[in-house]
């Protein structure tokens, strides 16, 4: 079942103060609303025509989001779908979506062109041909991770497929968007 669904085209899910996003309500029915994470200095912003003339949430450095999700939610695997476009300068430390514990994947981390799967203490990694740092076009990014497979697509084309030795354990309490649960990793 769907564990988190954030949809910026559904204006009823956005809590705004002007164009400042104070909360992005979860459409899954589980109440896992995304809010500003940690030391974020400002909120992400809503742009009604920012994504190919469609509504968009713009996340700049210091505007990371997190949504609560209890540990153990991801038991055997996860599939994630993100529509995004990268604008601006390349940051040397860019994360799109992660579920980390002490900055170690637990179980997933999409970071630059590296892909990590772990248990919060140990991890395995691979290198995708898709680097989020330079992904300036409109992208439908999707991936599925299980205890022994990472399968990734961009705009319907396979960009990474790896059989992996597993450290797959879900032992953290949030999913992070635009950060890796650190003060240095920003989308």
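Sequence proposed for the structure above (187 residues):
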């Amino acid at each position: 079942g769907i564990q988190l669904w954030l949809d910026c085209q559904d204006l009823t899910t956005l809590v705004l103060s002007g164009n400042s996003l104070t909360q992005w309500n979860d459409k899954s029915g589980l109440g896992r609303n995304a809010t500003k994470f940690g030391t974020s200095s400002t909120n992400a912003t809503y742009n009604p025509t920012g994504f190919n003339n469609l509504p968009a949430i713009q996340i700049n450095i210091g505007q990371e989001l997190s949504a609560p999700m209890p540990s153990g939610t991801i038991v055997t695997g996860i599939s994630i779908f993100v529509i995004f476009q990268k604008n601006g300068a390349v940051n040397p430390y860019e994360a799109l979506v992660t579920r980390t514990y002490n900055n170690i994947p637990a179980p997933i981390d999409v970071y630059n062109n590296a892909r990590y799967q772990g248990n919060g203490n140990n991890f395995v990694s691979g290198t995708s041909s898709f680097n989020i740092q330079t992904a300036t076009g409109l992208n439908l990014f999707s991936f599925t991770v299980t205890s022994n497979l990472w399968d990734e697509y961009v705009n319907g084309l396979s960009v990474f497929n790896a059989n992996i030795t597993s450290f797959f354990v879900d032992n953290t309490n949030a999913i992070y968007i635009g950060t890796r649960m650190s003060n240095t990793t920003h989308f």
